[in-house]
Amino acid sequence: MGVLNITPDSFSDGGLYVSLADAVRRAEVMVMEGAALIDVGGESTRPGATPVSVQEEMDRVLPVVERLARELSVPISVDTSKPEVMREAACVGAGLINDVRALRLPGALEAAAASGLPVCLMHLQGEPATMQQQPGYADVVADVHAFLAERVQACESLGIPRTRILVDPGFGFGKTLEHNLTLLRRLRRFSDLAAGILVGISRKSMIGALMGAPVGERLSGSLAAAVIAAWQGAHIIRTHDVRETVQALCVCTAARAAA
Asked: Which residues does the annotation mark as catalytic?
């Protein structure tokens, strides 16, 4: 899954693809590099991010989703928590709803169900503005699993079948470095919840903390984390660096098949 942020303030690529032409070119490159999905986001969810209005998010996202859905051969995911954006994105061709809040905003679950689209439910402790201020868990794996299980059940109760649900443990979203490493090591624990596991770990602060590297120098660590995640059962890897991640996962897939 290639990351395409239509934002001025995302932690890694903010401001790079805010024009429609730049966004389309970037998506085309990622598909050529091997992306099987493109994830379009119009609101940054980095720690301390400032929320944007519904209209501003729609103005950023909808033209891009509509154009990419029309011109590309891969599904277009919309990275949003707002029910209004979900509904409109579905109308212009989105193929997946990817929600960091796991459809918990008022009306989001109903909007997702009405769209008929598959959904990805992510675990988030707190809110982006404050999520990294002393996050805590009794048992991070058990707590995240219980949260996602409840959200999957909520989806099923409104007619979204488990076969159209992905789960994401939410690396970096209200977790310490230790929490993130524990989730990565025990990722397979989430395989009983839904149709698949999505992991977004590319260039994140946990990689920077381990490597002592700024955002632009975290490729090698991101690739290592992607391979570990795939080996531990992840089905979709969300990444900024598509070509390199695809190459790394080719080796991982071959090694797993040989085993």
From this structure: 204, 238
